[in-house]
Amino acid sequence: MTDRSLPRIALAVVAAVAALSLTGCGGGGSSDSDADAKASAEASSPAEGEDSAGSGVAKGDACAPSDVRLQARPAASGRVLLVATAAKACTAYGFPFLRFDKDQATADMDAASKPAAPVRLAVGKSAYAGIVPTSADGATPREAKELSVSLQAKNGDPVEGGEVRAALPGGKLRIDDSVRTTYWVADEAAALKG
C-alpha cells in the first residue's frame, strides 16, 4: 500500500460511515412518522368552527353540552320553554332529544316547527324549544321529576358529550305519552306557538 492510496481509502470509509448513519436514522423517516402522527391527530381534532361534513367524526359547529347552558322555564298553558344559551359560538341543529326520568325513548318532536335554517348562536345568545307535556287525547298523565337533554349534530345524530340534566320548573312536570318538543328556534314566541 502506498502513501498515495491512504487518502482514497480514508475517503471511502468516511463515505460508507455517512451512508450507514443515514440509513440507521431512516433517512429522516422519523420526522415523516412524526408528521404522519401530527396529521392524524389534526384530522381527528378539527379546528374550532370546522363543519362536520367531510370529517365524519367531529361535531363541527354544532352546540355541544359544554357549549351551552340549558334551562327549563315555565310557560303558558302548562308548557315548558327550554332555553339553550351559548357560552361559545355554535349552531343549534334540529331539536333537543328529551328524556324524562328513566324513559327508554326520547320525546317526539313537532315537525311543523322546523325553521328555515338552524339557529346560529353567538356567545350569550339563546335558542328556544317549546315542550308540550300532554295532549287532550293523550294517555294517563304521570309525574316526571327529571329531564335529560341531548343535542344534535348537523347530520341529526346526538352530539358527543352525553345527556345534560335540566331542572324542571317546580321540580316536576305532568307528562303523558304524547309529550313532544319543537325544533330549536330563534325566539320564544315561535317556540311556544301552536
Provide a short characterization of the protein structure.
The protein contains 3 helices and 11 strands; from the N terminus they run ααβββββββββββα. It has 194 residues and is α+β, with helices and mostly antiparallel strands.
Structure characterization notes:
The N and C termini lie far apart (104 Å). The chain has a five-stranded mixed β-sheet with strand order 1-2-6-11-4. The chain is built from three helices and eleven strands. The chain has 194 residues and is of the alpha+beta class. The protein has helices at 6-24, 29-44, 188-192; strands at residues 68-74, 80-86, 90-100, 108-109, 119-121, 126-132, 142-144, 147-152, 164-165, 173-175, 180-181. Helix content is 21%, strand content 27%. The chain is globular. A hairpin with a 5-residue loop joins β1 and β2.
Which structural class do the helices and strands define? alpha+beta
Spatial shape: globular
Estimate the helix proportion, in percent. 10-25%
Question: If helices are DSSP runs of H or I spanning 4 or more residues, what is the number of helices?
Answer: 3
In terms of per-residue confidence, which ranges show pLDDT below 50 for 5 or more consecutive residues?
A: 4-57
Strand order in the sheet with the most strands: 1-2-6-11-4
- What is the succession of H and E elements? HHEEEEEEEEEEEH
- State which percent range the strand residues make up: 25-35%
Number of strands: 11
| Alpha-carbon distance between the two ends | 104 Å
Average pLDDT works out at: 78
Largest sheet: 5 strands, mixed
